[in-house]
Known about the structure:
The chain has a single domain (2-193), classed as 3-Layer(aba) Sandwich (Rossmann fold), CATH 3.40.50.300. The termini are close together. 54% of the residues lie in helices and 13% in strands. It has helices at residues 13-23, 40-49, 56-80, 91-103, 111-119, 136-143, 152-168, 182-193, and strands at 2-7, 31-34, 85-88, 128-133, 173-177. The chain has eight helices and five strands; from the N terminus they run βαβααβααβααβα. By secondary structure, the chain is of the alpha/beta class.
Amino acid sequence: MLVTLEGLDGSGKTTVWERLRTDNVLPADTVFTREPTESWYGEAVTRSIEDDDADSLAELFLYTADHAAHLADTVRPALADDRLVVSDRYSDSRYAYQGVTLAGSGFFDDPLAYVQRVHEPWTRAPDRTVYLDVDPETAARRSGATNKFETADYLADVRANYERLIDDDPDRFVRVDATADPDSVYERVRDAIV
């Protein structure tokens, strides 16, 4: 089973993911992974995030290359071995975030749908996605607004894209109020996975 943790920057995904890794509540052979990865593809993504002038379409394909390698090297092999995979960010992050970034390019009528079409032939959809929901202002404050993807205005558009994804596939998503106290958030996420 592939479980993904999604949400705005500052929603607490990584904190929950790290706690799941150390609390031993999931099977011992669970694979914990994340995007961007720590591969050279992921390093290219990280450089792109830090470059305010990065071309939005080129950036999409850096993320896409990282996702493809992640699937080939980590996700698909673990699933073939019947292992649980828990990923901190996955394809929905790309749809939500790059859908916003590409909207400014003027090339696409529906940027989110374009990003989905790029992935459709080869990606592997999650079995369950836990969406940590937080308002854009809180997310920007928590994340520190340290890069172009962490401003409240940008995150408002990203949140709208996540809502669209949830509306399109409501049975896959479990919404968790990420403004609750951290222990409650963790327990809700854990219960959605176990």
